[in-house]
Amino acid sequence: MAATEFPAAELEEATRLLESLLRIDTTNPPGNEKAAAELVAETCRAAGLDPELNGVSPDRPNLTARWEAAPENRSGRPLVLSCHLDVVPADASRWTHPPFSGHNDGTYVWGRGAIDMKGFAVMAIAALTRLRNEDTPINRDVIFAAVCDEEAGTENGSRWLVDERPDLLGGDPEYVINEVGGFTVHQKGRRFYPVQRAEKGVAWLRLTITGKPGHSSLPAVESSVQKLARAIDAIATARLPWHAGEEARAFIEGFAKPEGSLAQKIAPLLAHPTLGPHLLPLAISDPSRRASMEAILRNTATPTCLHSGTSTNVLPGSVAVDIDGRLAPGQTAADLIGELTAVIAPIAGDSARFEILRESEPVSFSTDTPLFREIELALREADPEGQVVPSIIPGFTDSQNYARLGATCYGFYPLQLPPDLDFASLFHGDDERIPIEGFHWGIETLTNLLRRFLTSAPGSK
Ligand SMILES: [Zn+2]
């Protein structure tokens, strides 16, 4: 039951705003987030906030709007509600309704960005508008951020904000609420709500293999191209070492219900570096869920871009492949390079060299905080039979940058989903859409969370 009945007219208005926002094409690249940021700014102003647009270029602004607590009420560092307004490309020929139509069929609002993550922009605005209308005496500043450029690596967006204008994020925010979590996962008739508290790190690498250049009319015994092909195959099929940290264990244990089940008994043993990989199939029987869990329990390395040769009749002296590496908590790019060097040593030996193109550390946040407890409470209130699970994701979000400001970041974008919706496939997939009822449920859940968290007295948490 909601703490306060949410006005139906405001929910309706939120749906309309989402439709409008989805009609603005913010495909990144190139992004073009300006029109979307201006629409969001307008709604912020309607809520009595004073939004600012700042960024590397005027076409790619980052919106920030600050709701200041009265000095006599202020008892904590700021809370940031963050979303990104850019979206990944969509191939219209594969969609039921055009990806930038904002089509509302009465059950779903369709459009690229409905889930990832214009829906949360609207949700946050609706919640803040409601709380401001109620004259909520907030105990810390709340900053709403709608950034650009998340989907292409965050450079012009949250990374720029954190590096160049942390003041716009309150300087040293204590908490950030961002994507990916708070949605319903249906499993064997039960409902789970993962709340993200960790993200894998990034290690984009280039592997270069050198060999003797020459005329390709005289086949070499083993050319750099052949070695690279074999190295790519070895890397793509390797199962790198097991790194079952606390984050992965809590995630698996959270889903291993009911109490006393085989899965629950096995969960604590999954940390074992040699037994773990053999026990995982007993804990998670579904192959696709197991595959995504495996990606969290290991470093991963996926070869993507090839750089080889300039002419068909010339054997290149040096060839390369870029590798999208992802790091388990506690791991570094150097650790991953060590693991990959062992994989390709029999193939490439001394002729191989790795370089780091980009590295950002894995991030992990404690769940032993007042905000996490309030999130659990809010979800339990909104769905008493649901089970909250602290989760870790294999990808990265803007939280990777916010963490550098010392903020504790959670993925909490509450959405109640029907059992027949394949939610995971909607992220960056075809026919992205958001269930209207579940979206409204999310607005109420977020509002109730914020109302309570932002008015609780210090020490009472
Ligand atoms: Zn996203």
What is the overall silhouette?
globular
Helix content bin: 25-40%
- Main sheet: which strands, in order across? 1-2-5-3-6-17
Overall strand count: 18
**Major sheet description:** 6 strands, mixed
CATH architecture of the largest domain: 3-Layer(aba) Sandwich
The span between the termini is: 21 Å
Low-confidence stretches: none
Please, what is the oligomeric state? single chain
**CATH fold call of the largest domain:** Aminopeptidase
The total count of helices amounts to 13
**What amount of the residues lies in strands?**
15-25%
Q: How many independent structural domains?
A: 2
Structure description:
- The chain is an alpha+beta fold.
- The protein has two domains: 8-189 and 365-453, Zn peptidases (Aminopeptidase, 3-Layer(aba) Sandwich); 201-360, Alpha-Beta Plaits, CATH 3.30.70.
- It contains 13 helices and 18 strands.
- The strands form five sheets. It has a six-stranded mixed sheet, with helices on one face.
- β7 (185-187) and β8 (190-199) form a beta hairpin.
- The relative contact order is 0.18.
- Bound molecules: zinc ion.
Q: Quick summary of this structure?
A:
The protein has 461 residues and is of the alpha+beta class. The protein has helices at 8-22, 34-46, 118-133, 158-164, 224-237, 246-255, 262-266, 275-283, 287-297, 333-348, 370-382, 399-402, 436-453; strands at residues 52-54, 62-67, 79-84, 108-110, 142-147, 175-178, 185-187, 190-199, 201-210, 214-215, 300-308, 314-315, 318-327, 352-360, 363-364, 387-393, 408-411, 433-435.
